[in-house]
């Protein structure tokens, strides 16, 4: 039985990270706390750097990674946001850092609970993004993220999101692999890429003029494409070694479904139970869980949604002045496809608003309406609209 | 074809020597070895660095014993003509003349 | 599945260990071959403020991840909470309330099954915490085992041995003593 | 036989910029087993335009504000691997006194074994001579403009960065001036020997930003110390400062200002006030 | 004749900003430099705060704005990225700050030239986003941004992007309005919202629990919707006062077009001339310029593209693992529309790679191909693919 | 007649937390015309859960790391509007010594007229007792864990924040301890009178994080000063420190440690070493 | 209906008084006015603040002249029972008893 | 429109004012009722390194915003650049090269129309800059006016008076003198 944060900490320990730069933030704090204890108890031989900010934490992660260290760290929300500038640099420098995120809302107003705004706002940054449904997935994905990120064909950093509190602070059964198994799976040796080396003095982070810059970005683009292939490989190797199945998207009850719910993260389970209940009532609903959001599994999603009627995207984030980020990308993926379903966006669970069966009831009723008539493309669920509108409506 | 390394790493340390920044120069420092006392101040302060040390024997010298000391030699491939050496030379042994190319 | 899943809500005060109680209960249930889940309702108040935590127990893997709105049982670690918190909110009709109190079940007039135990006295007798801040979260789990019965007192004791941050034996002994001393209001 | 500086020519810094001279000597003293972290700024931008580099030691640039944090990460990794080597940060005054202050402060607090060198040209030069916290009182810059509503230019005194780092109890702190080469060399050598966080504050002329004749860079720096404006000192663990050069006769600050158009607008009153500030400093630091 | 940065500086002067917090960064530095000079010369009565970082600059902007000051600032690239965390806070606190951006590429590798990665990575942040095609637009948009942002129905911050160098450093004719005209247009008085006031002591930036947080986000969402209306009003008032026409999107040569180019910012002019040339050859190409990217003018774009065959989105940015941000949103906007065109993405001009007629030739040839056959959805133009692929391809 | 504190009860801070006591007195001295900027931390989170607030003066929270910058903006706006009033930042040790260091350093450098109060509970308490730069040597926290590979806990000495700000030549810097109430009051009153950037370093017991009896908060703070661990001093413009309280007979640091479980693991050797450090400080600061 | 202000501003300064944090208390401080010497130390240190000053005349006092001085009164609506007043009172005039509710 | 648009490329060294020259030319053209645009090619090198700047002049509003690839005229502020930069790259067939040099046009063997002027000497005679760093950017514009003729020398002078950062009169006078002294290689 582990809490989500403990899953992350155990995964780092199993991965034998060399350096753990950190700055604490709710709801991720238990990750560094456990690492600190592992080190104090002599169970993990790693350097713990308590930086003075998250900006410095990710900077130190870059420094250590450039020196060839395997680096893990953890953050959330404001901490991730404070890293923003440096996240792009970590990916531009092609460093396989792995970061656990306790997905949490962004200020203002300040709020410590779950939504996906923090990581969604980093979806451009060139990091691989994984979203865990459970603590088991949290642990497994961190482990796999190291293997994927360090693959020579990829060499890009990864973030693995665990929903604030709903996973980070929830204790549940987790199967922790043996150290030897993981040593074999990820490899103990240093990752293969050029590092700071006095015998081979190279220059890292040079200035990229217009004559070269775009090629480096194209290289990152290709590395992301490669990642898509490597993820499949590593996922299936993991399955064969540890028995647990992973894929970029998970399809359940989809065959005959007219309506599909798309979820990321911890609300998937609640959606699953809800759909099962509704199926008993004869409703043809399917569930599509996105585990890998970067690279965006466009082809997989297109294939899965082909011929469906209505797709309800459960967005735990909002790009103000547009709509949910997942909705946007799923809807974009439909372009040019025949038999494209109608994509409807549902903004839910911001700032820790609980996602319940009632939430999905409302989602379903709008999705059913959308089968026959026009509905709003962006729908806010579980929100007291009247309370807001008296001040804001024009 | 351009070389596009992973992560924009430059592997060839010190390869900026291919940039012949001597072309920036409008004035040219010329060491008068007959005056130069081999104090190496110009060598210390040249920012490029484009003054190097050479064996002294092939050069004139103001006094015999100095002849064996290393002399400063300007590498005009890189000298940008800033004039620092000219200004700092304690014996005014460096002339500064308009570049003619 | 909803028929079999069992949901518990703990009421305590920040610093009293309600979250740990929920966790230990989950571990105990897991040890018996169940699936389980425990989590806090995390607020911003500090030590002393009312807090809640939850445990879910099921025979099948637990998928849902929302708060517990209709608990099967409610555990009250601090009797003073009864005045400030509506501890029976959403409690199922046939629900059970387990209260740390020196009173007897019939001294309460909740329309539910009530079990009581003087966990504070038991904890103090085992030197768990101080009289200002007795640590009752393990004792109350003994009462839970007795009152609800879906985890055995042995599993509770083992879970305590595994998870208690300190004084493992004392905590386990306290749980056992509480188990013995719990008064079930409906068994008369 | 050309000398083997660890810093190659062919870089793009201005003719007469003193920064490369500083760098070549520090690297010469540090030797090959040295890892450089360089903050964004003139030095970084003008020496590493892909696919070229002037650096012959392992070198890294990440951003403007975080060299000390990057160095912390490198140091931790080396500790983990049991590797020995020098780690040196080079950062401008802007990258140190302003935007990099916190990363540096954290690095010193945590006690990392890193030498941090602030090359101080007293403004953000890479972006075109904007005021930094280290810009001296009375200096014109493009963001401390001079005009009828402000005849002085920069209105704040120079931030005492070396004092601030010394107050952190850094293992070794010193101010250095290449124009005082023996003093400079001794201090750099010492800095290479001490363990823990070390800090050097190096004044460097920027002829472009100081509006000065490029050939006068060293001369101006010499005057900075001879007028007492840039005192040379050192200390350990936040202990008492040792003044390492005390001019026998101080030159007036006016002589220093004369060679730099950035001070051209200053009235005699203001120069007098600055002179008094300098005099006061030395009085406070008389033995 | 003004350079783009001067346009911004003059607009701030005309708007009579009270406080100008700043931190310099290429290519925006001329903005603070001019403001510094205006103040030194007594031409502008404002407080100039030279902060120690952009993070602090935007923080000071918030402080000043909370005290009721009209606040302008300028930044770019790494500077904007360093503000990331605080940008969300400025909008969450509903402060009408206006920021000029010199759109520039993000590190690594470091590069000072134009692309839109910096602002695109802030498209979730709750700021209005305007992109200028010319220096005239730069000046006008900054002025209008104040009026829009300060509108009680909006109260959200705005950023106005001017392409690095291509606008910021390019000098061209700009008509600068008279001070009195602007005083009348924007208004001299303090904006209408609650500010820090000792006689009316309120608490700003309180903690938002799950019980309330989502309502505040919904309020921001509505304010963005309001902004959409207010923008139309202000644009048309501006046109009637100053003669220059603005609209969220600009449609040219669209009536009979089969292929549409969608552009933002300075490459629009080159595209316009290119299309005019091609029209002479009989090619039916139209041009759709997006001036307002936040709020995203979805309805306007849907209307404009209805019935078109192929839409070539010119993206000067890339969301790694997905594609161009503009492409994503335009393609998403097509969902559920009948007669939806095929949307094709073109990644161009990253890190200052020049966008030329040749660029558009390539775009056009792929777009024409897309009329009849499948083409890649994401197309990189003007990039030396071979140079990259030998290292990255798998 | 209930007293009109400018800080209302009903907040959510721990029973026995000393921070609110500090705040109520500072506000009482500052008066109504005061603008508070509060960094993220216990004080902020637990006093302003929407729709409630304990603050009766204008108050703002923006983020964890930037109060000094926010205050700079407020001050500039007030300057522009010709408005008078006190601006006070309240920030924890984490929000000051670590993540807020740079904003503070910049604020002081620019000379803004702001009083900055660091309430120092020696760790990140709001997030659950993680080490900060101000955590003392030997303290257990959740990120300076104690175990067989590290029997000491936090391995770095406490960052001397007040010294660092004094090295900036802030207009007024003082360390304050509510347990020495007259000294405290005099210093706060003085801080309210001085113009320019001012800094108060206030020790506050966090019974939760220090693992202490909530009723002992003031007693522990008194011991901090009576043992010499937290000396009381002040200075102006970076000048000489004036010790404002010199215990006639120093108590052993052990007495201070005894009341706090965070030091429980320390061996006598380590305590001895800490005692020596304290003794050394006082020797260096003997008149 | 909840009040959702623009930007989450709380307009009603000091309205946290609606939170009766006295409910957190497990031990209760009770001032024994017959011992209390009116030094106000408890008032100084109470962190809530939940001790206020009241006119002394209605209270007992150890000595007559003190009777006129203001007395400390505990507002049990907010007192969290931390015991600081109990600990700091120089004459041990505050009792600390287990709360009975 | 491409027929009428006139594009100019300036070659100078960092610090010599090539960008200012391009700007002043644009202003001069604008004063005459044209549309114009000027911009630098901004590199990362510092003072002394070769730099380029561009001006576009047209009768209609200028839409395009790419670099100038096929200039109608090239202006070389520093003769030493001729050795290190291919100044005629992309120059239109009937293009013009204006060079600051003490040489005469026929001493160069470019296959283009060449105009020369000793802008350095003229600048120094007007005390513009020092002999180490003469400021030739205004003088060379006089030569441009003479050689290309699409802006009058009066407009150039007025643009200088408006835009020169200092020594306005001297700069204007230098431009005029250069105008007079420019030698047109094709007028013999
Ligand atoms: C976050 C961020 N802000 C601003 C910049 C722009 N910038 C790059 S270097 C520089 C000035 C550097 O000044 P300094 O550190 O003094 O070094 P110098 O250029 O003087 O060598 C600035 C403002 C940047 N790269 N990153
Ligand atoms: C950028 C960022 N990083 C981390 C956090 C999480 N965080 C909030 S308060 C806090 C600790 C505050 O410590 P301190 O300043 O000492 O105040 P205290 O909680 O002790 O009162 C932390 C780590 C945050 N809010 N923002
Ligand atoms: S002129 Fe300058 S660059 Fe040339 S040799 Fe002398 S010092 Fe070096
Ligand atoms: S400085 Fe002058 S004397 Fe000394 S070595 Fe150089 S040229 Fe010779
Ligand atoms: S601008 Fe100044 S610091 Fe930068 S390279 Fe030129 S001279 Fe050196
Ligand atoms: S954790 Fe500590 S600082 Fe925070 S409220 Fe509780 S006692 Fe106060
Ligand atoms: S017990 Fe604490 S809260 Fe209650 S009155 Fe005393 S000091 Fe105040
Ligand atoms: S501290 Fe004790 S004696 Fe003093 S006023 Fe309070 S109760 Fe009375
Ligand atoms: Mg500088
Ligand atoms: Mg703290």
What does this structure look like?
The complex is a heterooctamer, with two copies of chain A (394 residues), two copies of chain B (101 residues), two copies of chain C (188 residues) and two copies of chain D (287 residues). Chain A is built from 13 helices and 16 strands. With 394 residues, chain A is α/β, with parallel strands linked by helices. Helices cover 42% and strands 17% of the residues of chain A. The termini of chain A are far apart. Chain B is mainly beta. Helix content of chain B is 10%, strand content 18%. Chain B has helices spanning 41-45, 84-88; strands spanning 27-31, 51-54, 71-74, 94-98. The model of chain B has no long low-confidence stretch (mean pLDDT 94). By secondary structure, chain D is an alpha/beta fold. Chain D has helices at residues 19-30, 42-47, 67-81, 93-98, 101-110, 161-167, 181-193, 217-226, 253-258, 268-284, and strands at 34-38, 59-60, 86-92, 115-120, 172-177, 198-203, 232-235, 242-245. The N and C termini of chain D lie far apart (48 Å). Classes of the chains: A alpha/beta (394), B mainly beta (101), C alpha/beta (188), D alpha/beta (287). Strand 9 (203-204) of chain A pairs parallel with strand 2 (59-60) of chain D, so a sheet runs across the interface. The structure holds thiamine diphosphate (2 copies), iron/sulfur cluster (6 copies) and magnesium ion (2 copies).
């Amino acid at each position: 039985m582990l809490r989500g944060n403990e899953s992350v900490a155990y995964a780092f320990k199993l991965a034998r990270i060399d350096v753990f730069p950190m700055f604490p933030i709710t709801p991720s704090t238990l990750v560094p706390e456990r690492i600190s204890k592992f080190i104090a108890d002599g169970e993990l031989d790693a350097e713990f750097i308590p930086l003075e900010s998250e900006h410095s934490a990710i900077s130190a992660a870059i420094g250590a990674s450039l020196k060839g260290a395997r680096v893990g760290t953890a953050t959330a929300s404001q901490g991730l946001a404070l890293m923003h500038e440096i996240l792009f640099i970590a990916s531009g420098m092609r460093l396989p850092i792995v970061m656990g995120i306790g997905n949490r809302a962004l200020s203002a107003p300040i709020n410590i609970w779950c939504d996906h705004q923090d990581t969604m706002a980093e979806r451009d940054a060139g990091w691989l993004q994984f979203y865990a449904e459970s603590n088991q997935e949290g642990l497994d994905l961190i482990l796999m993220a190291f293997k994927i990120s360090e693959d020579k064909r990829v060499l890009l950093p990864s973030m693995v999101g665990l929903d604030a509190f709903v996973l980070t602070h929830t204790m549940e059964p987790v199967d922790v692999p043996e150290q030897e198994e993981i040593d074999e799976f990820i490899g103990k040796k240093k990752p293969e890429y050029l590092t700071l080396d006095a015998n081979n003095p190279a220059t890292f982070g040079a200035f990229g003029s217009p004559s070269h810059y775009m090629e480096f970005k194209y290289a990152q683009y290709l590395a992301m494409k490669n990642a898509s292939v490597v993820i499949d490989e590593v996922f299936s190797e993991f399955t064969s070694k540890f028995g647990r199945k992973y894929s970029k998207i998970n399809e359940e009850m989809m065959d005959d479904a007219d309506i599909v719910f798309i979820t990321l993260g911890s609300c998937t389970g609640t959606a699953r139970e809800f759909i099962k209940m509704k199926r008993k009532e004869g409703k043809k609903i399917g569930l599509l869980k996105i585990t890998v959001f970067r690279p965006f599994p466009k082809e997989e999603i297109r294939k899965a949604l082909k011929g469906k009627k209505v797709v309800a995207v459960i967005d735990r984030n909002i790009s103000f002045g547009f709509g949910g980020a997942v909705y946007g990308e799923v809807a974009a993926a439909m372009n040019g496809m025949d038999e494209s379903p109608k994509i409807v966006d549902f903004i839910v669970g911001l700032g820790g608003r609980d996602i319940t069966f009632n939430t999905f009831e409302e989602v379903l009723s709008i999705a059913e309406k959308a089968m026959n008539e026009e509905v709003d493309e962006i729908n806010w669920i579980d929100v007291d609209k009247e309370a807001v509108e008296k001040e804001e409506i024009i | 074809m351009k070389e596009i390394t992973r992560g924009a790493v430059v592997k060839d340390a010190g390869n900026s020597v291919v940039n012949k920044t001597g072309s920036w120069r409008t004035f040219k420092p010329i060491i008068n070895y007959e005056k130069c006392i081999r104090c190496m101040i110009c060598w210390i302060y040249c920012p490029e660095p484009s003054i190097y040390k050479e064996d002294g024997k092939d050069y004139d010298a103001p006094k015999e014993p100095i002849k064996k000391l290393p002399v400063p030699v300007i590498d005009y491939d890189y000298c940008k003509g800033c004039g620092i050496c000219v200004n700092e030379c304690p014996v005014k042994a460096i002339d500064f003349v308009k570049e003619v190319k | 599945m909803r028929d079999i899943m069992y949901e518990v809500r703990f009421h305590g005060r920040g610093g009293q260990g309600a979250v740990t109680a929920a966790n230990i209960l989950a571990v105990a249930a897991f040890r018996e071959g169940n699936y389980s889940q425990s989590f806090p309702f995390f607020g911003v108040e500090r030590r002393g403020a009312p807090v809640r935590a939850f445990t879910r127990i099921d025979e099948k893997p637990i998928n849902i991840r929302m708060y517990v709105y209709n608990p099967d049982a409610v555990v009250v670690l601090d009797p003073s909470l009864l005045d400030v918190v509506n501890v029976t909110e959403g409690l199922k009709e046939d629900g059970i309330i387990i209260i740390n109190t020196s009173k007897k079940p019939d001294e309460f007039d909740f329309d539910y099954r009530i079990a009581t135990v003087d966990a504070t006295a038991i904890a103090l007798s085992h030197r768990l915490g101080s009289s200002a801040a007795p640590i009752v979260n393990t004792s109350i789990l003994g009462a839970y085992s007795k009152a609800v019965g879906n985890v055995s007192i042995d599993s509770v004791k083992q879970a305590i041995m595994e998870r208690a941050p300190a004084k493992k034996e004392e905590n386990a002994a306290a749980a056992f003593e509480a188990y013995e001393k719990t008064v079930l209001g409906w068994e008369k | 036989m050309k000398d083997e500086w660890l810093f190659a020519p062919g870089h793009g810094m201005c003719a007469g910029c003193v920064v490369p001279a500083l760098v070549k000597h520090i690297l010469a003293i540090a030797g090959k087993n040295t890892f450089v972290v360089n903050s964004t700024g003139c030095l970084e931008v003008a020496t590493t335009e892909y696919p070229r580099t002037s650096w012959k030691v392992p070198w890294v640039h990440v951003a403007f504000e975080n060299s000390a944090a990057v160095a912390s990460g490198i140091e931790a990794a080396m500790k983990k691997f049991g590797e020995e080597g020098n780690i040196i940060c080079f950062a401008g005054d802007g990258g140190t006194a302003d935007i990099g202050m916190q990363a540096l402060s954290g690095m010193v607090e945590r006690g990392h074994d890193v030498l941090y060198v602030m090359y101080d040209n007293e403004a953000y030069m890479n972006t075109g001579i904007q005021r930094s916290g280290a810009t001296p009182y009375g200096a014109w810059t493009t963001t401390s403009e001079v005009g009828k509503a402000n005849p002085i230019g920069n209105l704040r005194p120079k931030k005492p960065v070396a004092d601030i780092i010394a107050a952190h109890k850094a293992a070794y702190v010193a101010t250095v001036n290449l124009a005082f080469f023996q003093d400079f060399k001794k201090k750099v050598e010492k800095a290479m020997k001490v363990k823990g966080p070390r800090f050097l504050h190096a004044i460097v002329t920027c002829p472009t930003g100081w509006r000065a004749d490029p050939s006068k860079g060293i001369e101006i720096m010499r005057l900075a110390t001879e007028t007492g404006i840039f005192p040379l000192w050192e200390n350990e663990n936040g202990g008492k400062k040792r003044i390492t050069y005390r001019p026998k006769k101080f030159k007036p600050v006016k002589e220093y200002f004369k060679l730099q158009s950035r001070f051209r607008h200053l009235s005699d009153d203001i120069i007098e006030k600055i002179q008094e500030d300098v005099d006061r400093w030395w009085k406070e630091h008389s033995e």
